[in-house]
What does this fold into?
Amino acid sequence: MTTETKTMLIVLVVSLLILAGGAALYQRSSNQPDRPNTLTTNQEALVRENSIKVPATGEEKLVVVEFADYQCPACGFVAPQIKLLMEQYKENVTFVFRDFPLTNIHRNATPAASMARIAGEQGKYWEMHYLLFEKQEEWSNASDPSDLFVEYASFLEMDTSEIKTKLSAKVYQKEIEQDLADARLLGVDSTPTFFVGDTIIRTANANLIKETIDTKLAE
It folds into this structure.
């Protein structure tokens, strides 16, 4: 066998090995689940039994879920518009809010999420929710936002005696971590992210959310 023939055989064998490896890699990749864009396998992760929600006042025809971060400027921008949509579609749409604090860049997002839940103990969850977004610039960069949170609670006529203790104890850490875990299962990687039925909207575009709601309700 000549040197040239040996070289050709070696090249052929290497090429076959590369092709075989590529086929195997493709097969493994094709068996991996796509990044979720529907709820067919993740409905349990989308809305838990204890998720914070405003149920439809009439026949529920659609569920809208928002994953957001209280310190996220885009979330703060869209919050008043979502409030209007909640009022406009309250008869047939259930709105759900879930926490997705981006703790690597927003150090006060988790305490804010805790504060909203603490307010919920006194029936003031949504009042605190919107107040936190309204006052976002005031508390976002505070070294310790708890004093400001107490002020907000006082403004909402809440009992403020145990707020700092509960914030320090991180009493709602488990619930917030569940929201985070579910968000990752659903492919959430930015805020705000909305699930309008089985459609994912990854932007603070209230008009797009409204259009999607209208389309879903008309189906």
Summary: Residues 124 and 156 are 8 Å apart (CA to CA). The beta strands are 52-54, 62-68, 93-99, 193-196, 199-201.
